Amino acid sequence: MTTNKKRVLSCIQPTGHMHFGNYFGAVKNWVDLQESYDCTYGVVDYHAMTMPYDVKKLRNNTWELIFNLLAVGVDVDNLFVQSLVPEHTELGWIFNNFAAMGRVENMTQFKDKSSSENIKDKFISVGLFDYPVLQAADILIYKADFVPVGKDQSQHLELTREIANRFNNQVGKEYFVLPDTLFTETPNIRSTADPSRKMSKSAGEKHYINVFEEEGRLRKQIKSAVTDTGEKTEGEMSPGLEGLFTLLKAAGNIEAHTTLMEHYNADVLKYVDLKAAVADTLVELSTQFKERKAEIVADKKNIKLQIKQSSAEIRKVAQTTLRDVKELVGLLNVKF
Ligand code: AMP
Ligand code: TRP
User: Fold this and answer.
1) Count of the separate structural domains present in the chain
2) Ligand 1 mean position to 201 CA, how many Å?
3) Same-domain status, 271 and 125
4) Is-contact 130 92, C-beta < 8 A?
5) What confidence score (pLDDT) does residue 229 get?
6) Do 323 and 238 belong to one domain?
7) Residues 18-43: what's their mean pLDDT?
């Protein structure tokens, strides 16, 4: 953490599966950025509590996501678990007082989640409302310059900058860096079952493809991908086809992408060829990941130890920021 490299921070919730939407939209970027930036990545279990959830599953989901992240190439030294760095919640509380009610009320993610039909018992927690303030703490506590996320997080980043700005103004010091988003080339991966919506686990089983999926089911999901329906304007590619081409490109099969695109332009594209190319490419990627994951799971005990150590190391940065913040906002700053 003593380099001159720019800082990158991002987090992901331990809910459900890692799918090709969040992989190509965010996590692949996390992996690639590790070469040129000082990267810190979190599994945000406090955030996962904001929707009704199963207390028996959360801890397992957290470890499962960690194994998945390591399997696709995230470096263990860059990874922490949010609840092992409780300073996030403390900074989150402080930030509550720098976040405008009207702005937080306007967050589309809150509106979506609180109105969603699958919210159990229609219980909407204060935690769900406060979610983006804790997210601002996740980001600012490491003074991140860049935050690699999908397009759906832009509004939360905007709020983060507003909180940082208000804080800086009130304490009279440019203490927090105002972070920017970093999008991948594929910030929007579509559901193959309904290309008018994004690939997402909250929409139901059909709407996402697990990165670690068993080969047969993965091929089946691509085979049944919707190609021609959905909104289509004359002369424009249908959302379904576009989604398949995006997957091919995102997975790095540029050769097939170029050839098939030529076929499309010449009006001779066979959908079955496109689907076969997408399925083969995703299966190849998935096979590598599954092999790596099997090694990781076999070494579980050691990996858990490494995560505790990396979280403790990363926590030191968070503690330094929090000490500065307490000083700046006028709280007692006693060392016990
Ligand atoms: P989630 O899986 O919704 O918790 O999101 C984790 C990260 O992946 C966030 O940065 C999202 O913006 C990104 N993401 C999720 N779904 C997609 C998608 N279908 N296309 C692109 N990015 C996505
Ligand atoms: N809200 C993000 C999502 O839904 C997850 C998240 C929590 C996050 N804290 C963050 C992302 C900090 C980037 C930085 O995907």
Assistant:
1) 2
2) 10
3) no
4) yes
5) 61
6) no
7) 95
Site to probe by mutation for ligand 1, drawn from 53, 68, 147, 152 as the one with most ligand atoms within 8 Å of Cβ, is: 152
Q: What is the CATH number of the domain that holds 312?
A: 3.40.50.620
CA–CA gap between residue 132 and residue 129 (Å, rounded): 8
Inter-residue contact 151 to 187 (CB < 8 Å): yes
Nearest CA among 244, 148, 189, 156 for reference residue 22: 189
The alpha carbon of 303 and the centre of ligand 1 are apart by a number of angstroms equal to 25
How far apart CA 136 and CA 141 sit, in angstroms, is 8
Q: How far apart are CA 120 and CA 45, in angstroms?
A: 19
242 shares a domain with 156: no
Percent of the chain residues topping a pLDDT of 70: 96
Q: Which domain holds residue 277?
A: 201-295
- Tell me, what's the pLDDT at 234? 63
* pLDDT of 235 over the 80 cut: no
- Provide the strand spans (E) within the chain: 7-12, 38-43, 79-81, 146-148, 180-182
Among 12, 15, 22, 188, name the best residue to mutate to test ligand 1's pocket (greatest count of ligand atoms within 8 A of Cβ): 22
In our burial notation (b when 16+ CB lie closer than 10 A, e otherwise), range 130-160 reads bbbbbbbbbbbbbbbbbbbbbebbebbbebb
Q: Report the CATH number at residue 219.
A: 1.10.240.10
